[in-house]
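Final report, closing paragraph on structural work. Over the funding period we assembled a curated collection of sequence-structure pairs, and we close with a single example.
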Amino acid sequence: MRNESDPSPQIDAESGFSLAITAQPEDIDELGHVNNAVWVRWIQDLATAHWNAAAPQDAIDRYIWVVTRHEIDYRGNVGVGAEVTGRTWIADPPKGARFWRNSSFSDAGGKIVVAAKTNWALIDQAKGRAVRVPSELAELFLKN
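Its predicted structure, as stored:
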């Protein structure tokens, strides 16, 4: 999924978290571009990478996130071998166990080809249920 020439994800306080992704042959549908289901997977991969990069290990061990809603706008296409830059950020504080995560994917020219807003809920793994997002955890993501 990551671009081999720049394998490390980036976190920037102003632009959020970003990750380079290169479309592989198995990502392409019969129309010759990245399949819609792949974009959903990339949205989740991007969010997971952000979580793993920014959250403390004890939070990663204790909690998991589940998607409750996706809103996706497809504005363009990319084909096999094309690289996109996925960017994600959280603009607003959580409400209880949930928050909205924004994501966008830009092509090599900087054009946003997919934009998404996804609602996530925090699950305490030991309890097996949604729990309020701790403020100290939310602050880590609202900064980037």
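The longest helix spans residues 36-54. The domain at 10-142 is CATH 3.10.129.10 (Thiol Ester Dehydrase; Chain A). We thank the funder for supporting this effort.
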